[in-house]
Amino acid sequence: MKAKVYVTLKKGVLDPQGKAVMGALKTMSFDEVRDVRIGKFMELEIDGSSIEKEEARIKDMCERLLANTVIENYRIEIE
Amino acid sequence: MKFGIVVFPGSNCDHDCYHVVKHVFNKDAGYIWHKDTSLKGYDCVILPGGFSYGDYLRTGAIASSSPVMNEVVAFAKKGGLVLGICNGFQILTEAGLLPGALMRNRGLKFICSHVPVRVDNNSTPFTAKYGKNEVVDMPIAHADGNYFADADTIKRLEDSGSIAFRYSTPGGEATGEANPNGALLNIAGIVSEKGNVLGMMPHPERASETELGSRGGRGVFESIISTLA
């Protein structure tokens, strides 16, 4: 099965990269952009048959490595 | 007494640390490969600066799951002295030995510069040879040194005296202008609750000899040596 993991910065955590990208978009006259937050997207190919079991294991992966829960949130999609 | 310097793939301050311990302070030192699973015989473990695993995923994230880190965590839990410098500090936060996280610098740039650093707590095993609020010169060299933690953690660090070093003016004021990277409360280094783990972004090993322009980092090594003596 394939899992998609989205890692995003928590609310209130400053994102200087997002700010720089927003500045560049403004320079390009995309004035409607109010905020940009940059995150990470990961695709995992998983050997497993039980979605529930794998979801729990991917959650564990996120907690222990894929995301830093001090500053980041994560979301998992399995297909 | 023996110092162990952990070498991860991509560490690049390991030899500097070894040199300072061995040749400047004349103490026994050895390298510990990140796949080693024993810290037997070591009294202080140093996680040096560098770019472990190419800073992939997040700085320090992959190194924090290296085999040796289980031993480093156990060593710290038993009260052993652990010093993380720069990338080593990032690894310590990722491994959960110190709270918070080191984020991208506020200005997005890699900063390589000598900065004044104030000793906020001089009663730790790593800072006892400094004066209280003494300001020393040490270089920083990082892109991810912007210390962040939630408000409760920051308050706990402040109340418990866990903030060991802060970026300050040469006169000792921890002002916004003196903050090179956006770190909360100008935090440059923190100790664990028990005081036996220190993580710091400035490089004391690059500030231990007159030839390198500053001796402001010597106090860290002198303090450890006096603690272990």
Concise structural overview:
The complex is a heterodimer of chains A (79) and B (229). Chain A has 79 residues and is α+β, with helices and mostly antiparallel strands.
CATH superfamily of chain B: Class I glutamine amidotransferase (GATase) domain
Our Rg estimate of chain A from Cα atoms comes to 16 Å
In the CATH hierarchy, the third-tier topology of chain A is known as Mth169, Chain: A
CATH architecture of chain B: 3-Layer(aba) Sandwich
Low-pLDDT stretches of chain B are none
Largest sheet of chain B: 9 strands, mixed
Shape of chain B: globular
Number of strands of chain A: 3
- Indicate the low-confidence ranges of chain A by residue numbers: none
CATH class of chain B: Alpha Beta
Helix content of chain A: 25-40%
Radius of gyration of chain B: 16 Å
Sheet/helix structural class of chain A: alpha+beta
Domain count of chain B: 1
N-C termini distance of chain A: 6 Å
Q: Largest sheet of chain A at a glance?
A: 3 strands, antiparallel
Domain count of chain A = 1
What's the quaternary structure here? heterodimer
Kindly list the characteristics that best describe this protein:
heterodimer; A: 79 residues; alpha+beta; Mth169, Chain: A; 27% strand; elongated; B: 229 residues; alpha/beta; Rossmann fold; 9-stranded mixed sheet; two-stranded antiparallel sheet; 5 helices
Q: Could you characterize the architecture of this molecule?
A:
- The complex is a heterodimer of chains A (79) and B (229).
- Chain A has 79 residues and is of the alpha+beta class.
- Chain A has one domain: 2-Layer Sandwich (Mth169, Chain: A), CATH 3.30.1280.
- Chain A contains two helices and three strands.
- Chain A has a three-stranded antiparallel beta sheet, covered by helices on one side.
- Chain B has 229 residues and is of the alpha/beta class.
- Chain B has one domain (2-228): Rossmann fold.
- Chain B is built from five helices and eleven strands.
- Chain B has helices spanning 14-24, 67-77, 87-94, 151-159, 218-228, and strands at 2-7, 28-33, 44-47, 81-85, 101-103, 111-119, 135-142, 146-148, 163-167, 187-191, 197-200.
- In chain B, the strands form two sheets. Chain B has a nine-stranded mixed beta sheet with strand order 2-1-3-4-11-10-9-6-7, sandwiched between helices. A two-stranded antiparallel ribbon of chain B has the order 5-8.
- In chain B, α2 links the parallel β3 and β4.
- Chain B starts with a strand and ends with a helix.
- The relative contact order of chain B is 0.17.
- The mean pLDDT of chain B is 97.
- Classes of the chains: A alpha+beta (79), B alpha/beta (229).
